[in-house]
Amino acid sequence: SKAQLFEKGTKVNITFKDVAGLDEAKVEVMEIVDFLKSPKKYTNLGGKIPKGALLVGPPGTGKTLLAKAMAGEAQVPFFSVSGSDFVEMFVGVGAGRVRDLFKQAREKAPCVIFIDEIDAIGRARGRNAMMSNDERENTLNQLLVEMDGFSGETGIIILAATNRPDVLDSALLRPGRFDRQISIDRPDIKGREDIFKVHLKPIKTSQTLDIFKLAEQTPGFAGADIANICNEAALIAARKGKDSVEMIDFQDAIDRVIGGLEKKNKIISPDE
Ligand code: ATP
């Protein structure tokens, strides 16, 4: 999902229990939460606290959710921007916004900054047709300047998300910048079952609902698709005047979401 344009130091009440599956990613992220909670414990022994991590994985797999949960667990404010918000900006505007963002973050530290779709500003030089290269480079340079301008003890953790780590400018991946990568994959069957359980919580389901079967019927689905199915199924059942959501409603919802995904893929790859 799209990060709000400049979510500014919002208080978050999402925690790790809202994030299903992603067990390995959670372990890595918990380490970072601990840096935010007790920086001294680490710096006392002379270690340098990392400033950021790159969350790598396909759309809708929970990267934004995990970044938010991190802020929620550490009970620190959450700032977010999307790289795509910087596309088509006038000269100087992108760099100015990056400067503003970090200024506010420093005032509210400890905090988490989340940069969604970082590839939109962080592509290696000369590879982005969407933004004039000069302006994109200004924005990227400002981001690098800001990242170098504070130390790990400041208590600012920057998480950035991408599904194209291969196109990123290597300057972003250097030590002291996004030198850690956390991979966020599409869920396996167990992961999907757990994601269904999270999103079924607010829904009145029939007693005969078979969650394992739902997980079986949704290979390749991301968390966002599963959230979507649960909501669709509730709406379908309500439209039929039912007082609980049944397996058949979920099956209809799955068919709809598959239909939607097929359409989307057609638009993405017009060659087919
Ligand atoms: P994008 O790259 O498109 O921004 P993303 O990886 O950041 O996607 P999110 O925005 O975190 O994905 O996920 C969208 C929604 O899908 C979440 O708000 C949540 O409702 C649901 N979702 C995704 N992954 C999970 C998960 N692992 N557990 C529970 N819910 C999930």
From TrEMBL:
It is found in: Cell membrane; Membrane. Residues 49-188 form the AAA+ ATPase domain. ATP binds at G57, P58, P59, G60, T61, G62, K63, T64. It comes from the Bacteria. In the central section; belongs to the AAA ATPase family. In the N-terminal section; belongs to the AAA ATPase family. Acts as a processive, ATP-dependent zinc metallopeptidase for both cytoplasmic and membrane proteins. Plays a role in the quality control of integral membrane proteins. Homohexamer. This is ATP-dependent zinc metalloprotease FtsH. It comes from Rhizosphaericola mali. The chain holds residues 194 to 465 of 690 of the full protein.
